[in-house]
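Hello again, I could really use a second opinion on something today. I've been staring at a protein lately and its backbone has me curious. Please have a think about how the structure follows from the sequence. I owe you a coffee for this, so here goes:
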Amino acid sequence: MSTQILTYLLVGCSFALYIGIAVWTRAASTRDFYIAGGGVNPLVNGMATAADWMSAASFISMAGIIAFMGRDGSVYLLGWTGGYVLLALLLAPYLRKFGHFTVPDFIGTRYYSQTARIVAVICLVFISFTYVAGQMRGVGIVFSRFLEVEVTTGVIIGMGIVFLYAVLGGMKGITYTQVAQYCVLIFAYMVPAIFISLLITGNPVPQLGFGSHLDDGSGLYVLEKLDVVLLDLGFNAYTEGSRATIDLLAITAALMFGTAGLPHVLVRFFTVPKVSDARLSAGYALVFIALLYTTAPAVAAFARLNLVDSLHETPYTEVPKWFTQWEDIGLVAWRDKNKDERIQYTVGNALVPSKPAFSEQRGSLGERLVVNRSSENQNEIYIDRDIIVLANPEIAGLPSWVIALVAAGGIAAALSTAAGLLLVISSAVSHDLLRKTLKPDISDEQELRYARVSAAITVCIAGLFGIYPPAFVAQVVAFAFGLAAASLFPALLLGIFSKSVTKEGAIAGMLAGLLFTFFYIVLFKFIASELNTSEYWLFGISPEGIGVIGMALNIVVSGFVSRVTKAPPSTVMDLVDQIRVPNIGS
């Protein structure tokens, strides 16, 4: 059976499963739609949270970033996992104790202001749409390569599937769908990793294979061989970093604090019966997340080795089939600069800044032509970072069913997070903007209808982000984390642990952090991308890490404005005391 038929079969079966779960768990009330009725088992919630958390960035793009960046790519592992610990310890139990539906609900009540609620909704929408852009791009990449359809068509199909189970089931349907998606994605990630670890090191455990000797008789460890190979090609050693320490620390911190402020993850802790269940489900989620995150460095190292072995000095007429298949959809491109008809994979950027990755033109050998950066640059090849995990089984020559399984896993990872993001956006619109602000007299039935309509509109907008993505998956997601760190996280943290922050302080802080971070990212990534170097960055901090400065600005502005405005009412101070004191036996 061909790889494409197997892919259609596995992806089709997974879609049927997701839709079946949505029909079976159809939401009948706003409580079902927003928090799955509040009765989700902690183990189930932990697995659903892990799927919600492990997006296309984790499944598709993270190992690709580490494969190309080496040690510098570890900021994503450290930031995302460390941030989840912060979320579990500092926010999740207290928000569950608060006992409402959404993050803007907490901010609106804690800061006794409808304006604060609306500002929180604006922050949430900014963050979620930025994040969902990466997910829909991931869906488009998988569909266009493995199902051989246009990226636009792939995104539309993904939109349709998310629409069905998000609109029908709400949080109740999404919760149980995400359990199924976690099983699919983790199996799809681990199986090829185990295969490749066995082939390269003889060790079936990827985490141990990562630190083992190669099974090629060289006597070298995996990382030793990578350092030797990359240095020979002119790259930095894989185990050495090139980014400034301050930028690495800033990116790690932005990812950590951004993680703790992500609304689609926070809302998962509203779905369990008790505060203690929120803590317990956070622990389960960390275990489920660790399976993938401890495997990613091994996948990255194996992929980079296989990539060099497969391509460098290979005549274009002899390149493996996977190369030309990815080339056809524009995620791989090549230009024979020295006219030897061989691929030179060396240090340097093969692309002209701010240009598309490839030309529509084909060369004399039928190759898709990469856009030249300069005649002096010897790197002839462009490889999109987002293809590394997806192409890894093909590069390693694994069986067709493994390749099909990875395609199903990539789609599961993207859809699970996209559904969670779309739900928090629709909940913010229907619950916080309509029910709590503009139309307080609507019934539960009307609110549920508005929630479904807003979810449908949100799906369509998300699809546009997928068709016209602003960057590669993990980079887009990193921007979302920076926005979350600069806007929602300080407001939540101060709202729980400080009685002195006023509504004016919280509003001013959220707006200051959000606007500063947003305009900094837009300036260096879209308006003046040619200035996107450490020479022009504030304090030497890149757009990926600027969220930590936005967070500091948020806290400073909140504190200053709170000192010159009227103190919060006693009822708010009592609320802060209440959510910080655990119930006996909870």
